[in-house]
Amino acid sequence: MRYIPEVSDADWSTRHSVLTTARRTAALLNVLADDRPDPGHVASVLLEYGEAGPIELGPDEVDEMRVAAALLRQVFAAATADEAALVLNRLLREHTGPLRLTSHGGTTPWHAHIDRDDDAPWAEWLLASSCMALAVLLWDLQRPPGRTCASGSCRNVFVAQGSGPERRYCSRRCATRERVAAHRGRHSAGGSGDAAQGPA
Ligand SMILES: [Zn+2]
């Protein structure tokens, strides 16, 4: 009897969706932004997003992934769809191959790849799969596919999606910190009467 996995077809498909791929790109860019990213930490993000384990990354592979991540950051830094499209077109022209379909030997839903083959190095895979997902999101939403956190003390990128109000921060934590800082700024400006009393 064939084993039926707990994971539903919907989950199986969602795990490989364009949106999940773009979110994986953002998560990888954020761990790879460290000066010396821990290879184990990078591998854990890959596993979290459904890559098959075990994943052993060497320092050289992580270094190459950091170079790819730096290129991809330019897409997240773009303020408009036009700007993001220019960056993506350049990356697609200079770093990726022709479009092909793969199911990784039947282990995943059919999906598109633009790296050379299923065994391409991690850095090539990161750049190609990210360009693909970000290009499709830009196409679909007609806006930049991602953003950089508006907090001056945070370098995180995130995937902007949906039709709600424009999101400015990578996380609730950054949004709260900035709101508290803005409140304190207003408070201390309003409290200048205290300062006028001079030093104690
Ligand atoms: Zn942030």
UniProtKB/TrEMBL annotation:
Region entry Disordered, spans: 181-200
Superkingdom, natural source: Bacteria
Domain annotation Zinc finger CGNR: ranges: 147-187
InterPro entries per record: ABATE, ABATE_dom_sf, Znf_CGNR
PANTHER family the record matches: BLL6575 PROTEIN
Protein name, entry field: Zinc finger CGNR domain-containing protein
